[in-house]
Specification:
The structure is a single chain. The chain is mainly alpha-helical and about 300 residues long. It is about 75% helix and about 0% strand. The protein is built from 13 helices and no strands. Helix 4 (about 90-120) packs parallel to helix 7 and helix 10 (about 215-235) runs antiparallel to helix 13.
């Protein structure tokens, strides 16, 4: 009797058993999971180590800050640095200035960039693309390069040592990114929706305020948060354009805790940690809108 080898028979004989294949698949998945967790731990530690060092230094007595070898965990914990912050009224003035400047910068940046982004996205006119790239090209210049020019302009108009100088300078550098961010978000809004509202008799301003901006709320929040952080973290413009009464927290902390002969490191670390909390809380509270605003313009709908 002659045996006939069919293609199915050859495949069945040559194929490895299913159990070893499943074991190899599980081993590969386990190795991939372990590698991913190792990467998360390494990058997470790299990102959180400075924050931990801020906390540890702020809780360390001043006499042990420069102990050698450095101690990863403080042997003695003290809250004297935080008590010094609470008893320093000048810091509350810097905090007030930071809040005022950052909030106004965020509002002004969102208002201006919303109209500019909508015009770039939905209007068609000669020179539109060139103007868009011109706005983006302004980000190529170092901000410190324009500091002398801004100082001369604000001095000529009597705006030095005012909130106006800080808000205008911060808004100048936040607008390009905010405009492009919102322009990409407006691109995802269908033109048919705007045309339907126009057919129903809605004016252009009514369409923008009642239809487009509510749909672009995540993008507006993302742009506002970016502008807020820009105003909150700035150092060089707040140090140069504002006097002691209008300076924000970054230059205020330097002037308060860093001197020619010594530096109050525990107080400076404690103040830096406290100053970072509002931005961290804002990111945590608005992260859903921030992610949606940053990614919505990636794919045109």
């Amino acid at each position: 009797m002659t045996a006939v080898l069919t293609e199915e028979t050859v495949t069945a004989v040559s194929a490895p058993p299913a159990a070893p294949r499943r074991r190899r698949h599980r081993a590969d998945r386990r190795a991939s999971t372990v590698s991913a967790w190792i990467a998360v731990v390494v990058f997470g530690g790299f990102a959180l180590l400075p924050v931990y060092w801020l906390l540890a230094t702020s809780l360390t007595p001043r006499t042990e800050v420069f102990s050698y070898p450095p101690k990863l965990f403080p042997t003695e914990i003290t809250f004297e640095a935080y008590a010094a912050l609470a008893n320093n009224p000048a810091l509350f003035g810097y905090l007030r200035n930071s809040i005022v400047v950052s909030v106004i910068t965020a509002i002004l940046s969102v208002l201006v960039s919303a109209y500019m982004g909508y015009a770039f996205s939905k209007f068609r006119y000669r020179g539109r693309r060139s103007l868009m790239y011109f706005v983006l090209a302004s980000q190529m210049f170092p901000q410190a390069l324009l500091l002398i020019t801004l100082y001369a302009v604000f001095s000529a108009y009597g705006l030095l040592n005012t909130y106006t100088a800080l808000v205008l300078s911060f808004t100048t550098f936040t607008l390009p990114l905010c405009v492009w961010m919102l322009k990409g978000f407006f691109d995802t809004i269908p033109d048919e929706l705007i045309e339907a509202a126009r057919v129903d008799g809605a004016s252009r301003m009514r369409i923008i305020h009642s239809i487009v901006l509510p749909l672009a709320a995540p993008g507006l929040i993302a742009a506002g948060l970016f502008a807020f952080v820009r105003g909150w973290n700035d150092f060089i413009f707040a140090l140069t354009l504002a006097g002691p009464d209008k300076q924000t927290l970054p230059p205020g902390l330097v002037n308060t805790f860093i001197g020619e002969a010594s530096t109050a490191w525990p107080e400076l670390m404690a103040a830096s940690l406290v100053v970072s909390l509002p931005v961290a809380i804002a990111f945590i509270a608005l992260q859903r809108f921030l992610v949606g605003g940053l990614t919505a313009g990636a794919v045109k709908g």
